[in-house]
Design a protein that fits this description.
The structure holds two protein chains of two kinds. By secondary structure, chain A is α/β, with parallel strands linked by helices. Chain A is 26% helix and 21% strand. The chains are: A alpha/beta, B alpha/beta.
């Protein structure tokens, strides 16, 4: 317990730390266990006690969830101040009683503080100590004594608090309630009903935080249990959080069950490598293997949640295709080589093409790695072109990033998570938060729930995510985003009521426009977003999908010709060598002045050029690379990511291995080329990063909206973005996670379905000259007409590699026989 | 000698007591005219002045409850009538709604007018389908007669009444669980505050009153608060229905002023069956601590019963004669609480589960004296620690039965089983009764 006599804190009850100092008038003085405590009005007693250093045992209480008062473990004795006397001073406190004459304990997790209140916890009230022991004993009567085989054993709040606040011996000698164990509530979450203490943390999380109330308490009395719905599976992107916040071992992750004991694990603080949200996480490993990952508490970013991908998708380096040794291509065949040999081969090849080289960084590298790529392009390669974008991109986007994104950080006024939470309105354009940056989604849902933030989305259809944010759809076909954005502020007969409302909301003062990376493929859209921000006073932020893109931008890994231009130049023979980081050629689909570049073109380009590939696992690039240099996967390297806010997120290496991060390999290669770049250690990279000169100011792009493409007969426009859980390579090796990926369906509006003679639930074929995809269709409402939506990379429907196009393209659509669905992978 | 005061029960023996016609013949809907000519605030004051205390068990002053509603803000306000009568022994509201439903409907209209409500709900225990039908019919009659709907009696006041049948859960008699259930959720109690007066049904200001409380309003309006306050005792004014059940000669509903004694009621009910002796009885349903023969002269009002260590509750007087095994009776009550515990909070959910097992054993003579201490200590850990009063209620029969009949528990243990003849206690096999 604290030795200080007074504990004061400015932290308000609802963790609204962003508001800063609390007015003195809003502070409430009370006494807890004889300590004078001063906390903001509305603070729960249990939080006030924490701030005074007094821990009250609890199970159902969770600061992130609405209080419920169900477990009754946090009982305290409360004396309410008496009626104020004539001079306004509160009277003598009176003990809360019930039945009269008997102290009635109060649940400190639901009762808020009052001025002059006196609280006695288990430390100063014998009756409370007994009450808590009583509750604990009852919690345990039906709890199995399987701690020795329970995943939670060793880090279990029930185990721990049974020790600290429970009886040494149970008096229960009757028959425990038992259930068959465990049952799957999803492919990745298992439920041992006998262990459950029915605190409702999991159900409250799913309902309140994730908005996925697919689990609920059912039955009553001692038979109450967590249940699922037959029709609605527990397919939530956030289900792993229920495992983490379960105060007992009732919910366990299928992947981790029976794998390790907490006390055998070594924990490393880390940052998730999957998306640009930048979640703090903890990597738990044992003897060189990552056992599990947990969300860490970071109130500014992910609060205490993460998504299932961040939690469970970490097995991808272990699926058997890890590149262990350097390789060089000899007579058309890759063979293992020593580092010196491979470095020499790479250096020779690059030197031979001096002045005709390019660097493709990929969007997954750390800030430090990206800096090394950029330094490598500058010095040893003598100012080679460099681009981190391995996805649809444009020159307009490069200008946009340089003018409106690069260099913005929370310190100098960039949009932050806290800003999202307090925004009066948020407009999403080319960005589906739940799929593309799930923690942004959680924060927007919180903003909607707690502060009534109005969310608008310029999108082809109203996703479930949008509904969970209380959002309103500004229906727009892919490719028309620029027109819609312009239409929000201009008087036009085509402007809808929703657009007018959005325009009004954006002028609200604290409004924010969030644009996704997909807008790069819509000519004029990013310019229109800038115009809209300018005109309405709304602030603007750009949210890419990949964790490394923002850092790569900051590290200067975007200069000269773009990815598509470099590849085209390679096809044309103008570029002779490419240094390639983590790039999947199938992701690169881009339109350009020389016509569209398909993923096949990208492969063709890599085939022609001398390719040095820095990779973790074998990939399509490996198949065409001339020299392959292995680099460390996320768990084996330290570094930092820059998340969408511009916040630097430093992570440590969890596992010790001989694998080198890209910056180290590039340092060796530069030295081999006789042009050292000084990126041997993290410290030296960071010194150089700090010394980076501020980039030259760039004029913001100001393109007009391009003309809208009109699909012809039998054609529609393709809308697409990837689901969070899909066939992405960084989810490989985790079948339990894959089991909750959304089913692959095409979406069309009712009018489009009618026009094309397609029935809801039937099969459709989406085709381009490159290929076709047959998937079941879900008629979606509301949805814009003449558009088909496909997930970019879901099972059976890899859009970019099969169709060779991306959002905004004209594709053929026709009803297909259901039998076509049975073909392998659905790809016809 | 206290005499009966048949008011709500006055014409239950009429061949068609439940019809609007019968009700109107007995001054029905005259109070409504009077109420509609009054200022709503006056009506609230009248309820306060009458001293009417909630008839659902807790005895909270009804007028004061109405007064807790915040000032009107233009949004809806609701009256919800708690007709989820489910406590073992309690059987007053259901006969009342069966025999004279219009008392409730007229009371609901007056109350709604008083509190500014335009949509009232009657949440009825789901099992009593016959009562549900009768209520629906009565509401229909009231609409047809212009007592409900738009512009009632030309006053400009509109009211709709919805009768809702629950799904059969004792917990839904707890007012906040009732509201959750009415909203279509699982019936589990809510945290208070906010109280229903501030954020009740659909998070709007709501008054939740018992059937008998609301049914008492028309007589009060018709005859005046003084008339009502003249009955009963100082702190417990008015009349109430006393439900005698069990081992009495003439079980049934006895409407009398509060403060009548059990001895008087037993006399009215023809005494214990077959001239046997009373062993124990509940003053207000199974969740009120037991009384014995020594409590026959306790005045049955809120204060008197509380002073004697129990609660007036719902005046559900379950009478058990000397043929009854108290351990068995308590075991069966405990079974009820275990079955009806909603599961939300630990003490009630786990505690009742545990209590039932111990009592089940003890009744079979398995266990030892320490089990009695354990029972008492578990009850001590439940009472006042549970989320709502359901858990508290579960402890009452146990603690009081051990207090008065500890020897009988021990007798079970000594004999290795129940010393009573089960059939002797039954009502259907009086021939086999032997003692």
């Amino acid at each position: 317990m604290t030795t200080e006599k007074t504990a004061t804190t400015g932290k308000p009850a609802a963790a609204d730390a962003a508001d800063g100092a609390v007015e003195k008038a809003d502070l409430v003085q009370l006494t807890i266990d004889g300590l004078d405590v001063s906390v903001p009005k509305g603070t729960l007693i249990i939080r006030a006690a924490e701030q005074a250093g007094i821990e009250i045992p609890r199970f159902c209480d969770h600061p992130g969830l609405d209080p419920v008062g169900a477990c009754r473990q946090c009982l305290v004795e409360v004396w309410m101040p008496g009626r104020p006397g004539p001079d306004g001073t509160p009277g003598e406190p009176m003990q809360m009683q019930g039945p009269p004459g008997r102290m009635k304990p109060q649940a400190s997790c639901v009762m808020t503080v009052a001025p002059g209140m006196v609280v006695k916890t288990q430390y100063t009230s014998e009756a409370i100590d007994k009450a808590q022991h009583g509750v604990m004993e009852m919690l345990l009567i039906n709890h199995p004594l399987d701690c020795p085989v329970c995943d939670k054993g060793g880090e279990c709040p029930l185990q721990n608090q049974a020790m600290s606040n429970g009886r040494a011996v149970s008096r229960f000698e009757d028959i425990k309630r038992t259930y068959p164990k465990p049952i799957n509530i999803s492919s990745q979450v298992l439920l041992d009903r006998d262990r459950c203490i029915l605190c409702a943390r999991c159900t409250r999380f799913s309902e309140q935080i994730a908005g996925d109330p697919f689990i609920e308490l059912v039955e009553r009395g001692a038979l109450q249990q967590v249940g699922i719905y037959e029709e609605k599976p527990f397919e939530s992107y956030f289900s792993g959080n229920t495992v983490q916040i379960c105060p007992v071992g009732a919910l366990t992750g299928a992947a981790y069950r029976f794998r390790a004991r907490p006390f055998d694990l070594v924990s490393t603080s880390s940052v998730c490598e999957h998306c640009a949200s930048g979640c703090a996480q903890r990597t738990d490993h044992r003897r060189g293997s990552v056992m599990r990952r947990l969300a860490s508490y970071d109130p500014a970013v992910n609060e205490e949640w993460n998504c299932d991908k961040g939690r469970w998708a970490f097995t991808y380096p272990l699926v058997g295709d890890r590149i262990q040794f350097p390789m060089v291509r000899e007579n058309g065949v890759l063979r293992v080589a020593s580092w010196p040999e491979a470095l020499a081969a790479a250096a020779d090849g690059l030197a031979a093409q001096a002045g005709r080289t390019g660097v493709l960084v990929g969007g997954r590298v750390s800030l430090e790695d990206a800096f090394a790529y950029s330094a490598f392009a500058r010095t040893p390669l003598g100012g080679a072109d460099i681009d981190f974008r391995a996805r649809p991109h444009s020159a307009e986007e490069a200008d946009f990033l340089a003018a409106a994104v690069r260099g913005r950080t929370p310190e100098n006024g960039a949009v932050t998570y806290a800003d999202l939470e307090r925004a009066s309105a948020v407009l999403l354009v080319g960005f589906e938060p739940e799929d593309e940056s799930p923690i942004v989604f959680l924060r927007l849902r919180k903003a909607f729930r707690k502060h009534g933030t109005a969310v608008y989305a310029v999108a082809p259809w109203a996703t479930r995510g949008l509904r969970k944010m209380g959002g309103q759809l500004l229906a727009s076909a892919p490719g028309t985003e620029a027109q819609v954005l312009d239409g929000i502020t201009t008087e036009s007969s085509r402007a809808t009521e929703a657009m007018a409302k959005a325009g009004e909301a954006l002028r609200g003062g604290s409004a924010i426009i969030l644009v996704g990376e997909r807008l790069a493929a819509v000519p004029g859209a990013l310019s229109a977003a800038l115009r809209l921000a300018e005109e309405t006073g709304a602030r603007l932020a750009w949210i890419p999908r990949r964790a490394g893109e923002r850092g790569a931008l900051e590290a200067g890994a975007l200069s000269g010709r773009s990815t598509a231009e470099m590849l085209r130049a390679a096809i044309d023979g103008e570029i002779g060598a490419l240094l390639v980081g983590g790039v999947d050629p199938y992701d690169i689909v881009a339109a350009g002045p020389a016509g569209p570049l398909t993923s096949d073109d990208a492969l063709d380009a890599l085939q022609r050029a001398f390719v040095v590939s820095l990779e973790v696992r074998e990939s399509p690039v490996t198949e065409v690379a001339d020299v392959v240099l292995p680099v460390a996967p996320h768990a084996e390297k330290a570094g930092s990511f820059v998340n969408w806010e511009g916040r630097t997120r430093v992570f440590e290496a969890a596992l010790e291995s001989g694998a080198m991060s890209d910056y180290r390999v590039l340092d060796l290669l530069a030295t081999e080329l006789g042009n050292p770049i000084g990126t041997r250690t993290l410290a030296s990279v960071r010194d150089q990063l700090a010394a980076q000169p501020a980039p030259e100011p760039v004029a913001a792009p100001a393109l007009d909206a391009a003309a809208v493409v009109e699909p012809g007969a039998g054609q529609v426009l393709l809308a697409t973005w990837p689901h969070l859980l899909d066939m992405g390579r960084m989810q490989d090796g985790e079948p339990f996670l894959a089991g909750t990926a959304p089913a692959t369906v095409a979406r069309i509006s009712a009018a489009t379905a009618e026009a094309f003679g397609v029935l809801d639930g039937g099969a459709v074929e989406v085709s381009t000259p490159e290929g076709s995809i047959v998937v079941p269709v879900e008629v979606t409402d509301p949805m814009v007409d003449h558009v088909v939506w496909l997930p970019t990379n879901s099972a059976g429907a890899p859009v970019r590699s099969v169709l060779g196009v991306d959002a905004g393209a004209v594709v053929g659509l026709r009803s297909a026989p259901d039998s076509a669905l049975t073909t392998q992978d659905g790809v016809a | 000698m206290t005499t009966l005061t048949p008011i709500l029960t006055k014409f239950w023996d009429d061949p068609q007591s439940w019809t609007l016609q019968t009700y109107e013949r007995h001054d029905g809907y005259r109070a409504l005219d009077r109420a509609l000519s009054m200022d709503p605030a006056e009506l609230v004051q009248m309820a306060k002045d009458s001293g009417l205390r909630g008839r659902g068990g807790a005895g909270f002053p009804t007028g004061m409850k109405w007064g807790f509603l915040p000032p009107p803000d233009g949004g809806p306000r609701y009256l919800v009538v708690n007709a989820d009568e489910s406590e073992p022994g309690t059987c007053k509201d259901i006969p009342l709604m069966m025999a004279a439903p219009h008392f409730l409907i007229e009371g609901a209209i007056i109350t709604s007018f008083a509190i500014g409500c335009n949509h009232a709900f009657i949440y009825l225990r789901g099992e009593v389908v016959h009562v549900y039908r009768r209520l629906l019919r009565a509401v229909e009659e009231a609409y047809a007669a212009g007592h409900l709907g738009k512009n009632i009696h030309g006053s400009g006041f509109d009211l709709d009444i919805t009768v809702h049948a629950g799904a059969g859960a004792y917990i839904c008699g707890e007012e906040t669980a009732l509201l959750d259930s009415l909203e279509g959720r699982r019936g589990q109690p809510r945290s208070k505050p906010p109280f229903p007066a501030v954020a009740g049904l659909y998070a709007r200001p709501t008054v939740v009153n018992n059937v008998e409380s609301i049914a008492s309003i028309p007589p009060i309006v018709l005859h005046g608060d003084d008339w009502f306050a003249d009955m009963g005792t100082e702190g417990s004014k008015g009349f109430g229905i006393f439900s005698l059940s069990g081992h009495v000669e003439k079980p049934g509903q006895y409407e009398a002023p509060l403060g009548i004694t059990m001895r008087e009621l037993l006399d009215l009910a023809g005494g214990i069956r077959g001239g046997k002796k009373i062993k124990f009885w509940t003053p207000g349903g199974s969740s009120t601590p037991l009384f014995t023969a020594e409590h026959l002269d306790v005045p049955l009002d809120f204060e008197g019963v509380a002073k004697a260590g129990s609660m007036l509750g719902t005046r559900a007087l379950q009478v058990f004669d000397e043929t009854t095994c108290v351990v068995r009776a308590v075991d069966r009550w405990t079974d009820f609480y275990m079955h009806e515990s909603c599961g939300k909070c630990t003490p009630c959910r786990e505690g009742t589960y545990w209590l039932k097992q111990i009592l089940g054993r003890l009744e079979k003579g398995q266990g030892d004296e320490e089990d009695l201490e354990k029972l008492l200590d578990i009850c001590d850990n439940i009472l006042g620690r549970a989320f709502c009063a359901l858990g508290d209620g579960a402890t009452s029969p146990i603690t009081s039965s051990i207090q008065y009949f500890r020897d009988e528990y021990l007798q079970h243990l000594e004999q290795g089983g129940c010393p009573f003849d089960r059939s002797a206690a039954t009502l259907f096999d009086k021939e086999g009764a032997s003692l």
